[in-house]
Amino acid sequence: MISVEEAQEQVLSRISRLEPERVDLLAALGRVLAEDVVSDIDVAPFDNSAMDGYAVRHADVRSASADTPIVLDVVEHIPAGVSPQVTVAPGTASRIMTGAPMPAGADTVVMVERTRPGRADGGPDGSVEILAAPSPGENVRTRGEEVRAGDTVLLAGEKIGPAAIGLAASVGHDTLLVYRRPRVAIVSTGDELVDVTEKPGPGKIRNSNSYSLAAQVMSAGGEPHILGVARDTEEHTRSMLERAPEFDLMVTTGGVSMGDFDVVKKVLEEIGELAFWKVAMRPGGPQTFGAIGETPFFGLPGNPTSTMVGFEMFVRPAVRKMAGFSALLRPRSIARLTHDVKKRAEKRYFLRSRITRSSDGRYSVTVSGNQSSALLTSMHRGNCLISLPEGESLITAGTEVLCIRLDMEEGTA
């Protein structure tokens, strides 16, 4: 039996990033970039207006106020997408829309809310009264203000979010090179399992583990493939596990303990390699890891919460490493226990809990319900796992404990 840290180290030492692939821009969302993205143009590509208003010479309007407005002749109306044709000379202005190119001669835009119509017999488009003095260059977006041609706008290793998608589009990229999502095979084991659409008869339960695992795989950045249920025979289990080389990673649930019908470990040793199969943790001590061919293999316990906790501790970091992420583990917070907790001293405990933050910025944490490994409700109601180390048997209320934040995704890759 090994520690959680030893198990994680063994797992991650044998996992490598997958090869990159080029995908359409929107398909890159949430993925990890495998190459720098360089701009082919200046952004903004030309001086343009940040507001609907009037393009003016600052020298003409620097003394404007509501009591002493400055009246300018309007010489042109410039919508977005249209090049200006008239130079703004002293005493004139151009009506301009957001995003429209700045006309020659103008250096400032007065937002329309700080103006009012002037005489109808002004310039070609009448005249306008400027009711407030703007700052020099106000409401003007200058060429190259954000990016210059040749600048690197996104770095390899970054996680692609919505803003990164917009940046890539603005510099002419309709595809991105990203690390491939790992294809994860999911197999539940046990003669007691029936499909989720079937009402369980005596001694039967619905196969919920395949779906919670698939959801965890998706959340971690992988692509789940539910293969079905392996029955409690070596022959059927072998036929399912032999499909592992079709995928980047395989996960099973159940069949890894000491029961008469727990055959996963035996089959793994016959057709693959076993690295470890017991970890000093609760829930989920029977955690199996190895390989079938070149495909990493995880055999998780069958109880629903043991399955989900085992995935969080070992499978999720592996999936994220394969997908190109560098931040592999969930964020951690320190919180004060609101009640006593008893445990077995020789094991690491992971308690489904709920962490909250008070007005003074300090965290407190409370278990979120019954901690039986067969029950999912406390996992659903919780937003963290309290990690209680080996060597302690009583942790009293008020003790500061480490909380693994299930409610927080890493902000960076």
Please explain how this structure is put together.
The chain has 413 residues and is of the alpha/beta class. The chain has four domains: 4-18 and 181-322, Molybdenum Cofactor Biosythetic Enzyme, Chain A (3-Layer(aba) Sandwich); 27-43 and 148-179, Molybdopterin biosynthesis moea protein, domain 2 (Alpha-Beta Complex), CATH 3.90.105.10; 48-141, Molybdopterin biosynthesis moea protein, domain 3 (Molybdopterin biosynthesis moeA protein, domain 3, Beta Complex), CATH 2.170.190; 332-405, Beta-clip. 18% of the residues lie in helices and 30% in strands. It has eight helices and 28 strands. Helix 4 (209-220) runs parallel beside helix 7 (304-322). The radius of gyration is 31 Å and the shape is elongated. The chain starts with a helix and ends in an 8-residue tail after the last strand.
Q: What is the count of structural domains?
A: 4
DSSP strand count: 28
Instruction: Note the beta-strand portion.
Output: 25-35%
The side-by-side strand order for the widest beta sheet comes to 7-4-6-5-9-8
Mean pLDDT: 93
Distance, first to last CA: 32 Å
Helix content: 10-25%
Largest sheet properties: 6 strands, mixed
* Alpha carbon gyration radius: 31 Å
Number of helices: 8
Return the CATH topology of the largest domain.
Molybdenum Cofactor Biosythetic Enzyme, Chain A
CATH class of the largest domain: Alpha Beta
Supply the CATH architecture of the largest domain: 3-Layer(aba) Sandwich
What is the CATH H-level superfamily of the largest domain? MoaB/Mog-like domain
General form? elongated
Low-confidence blocks of residues: none
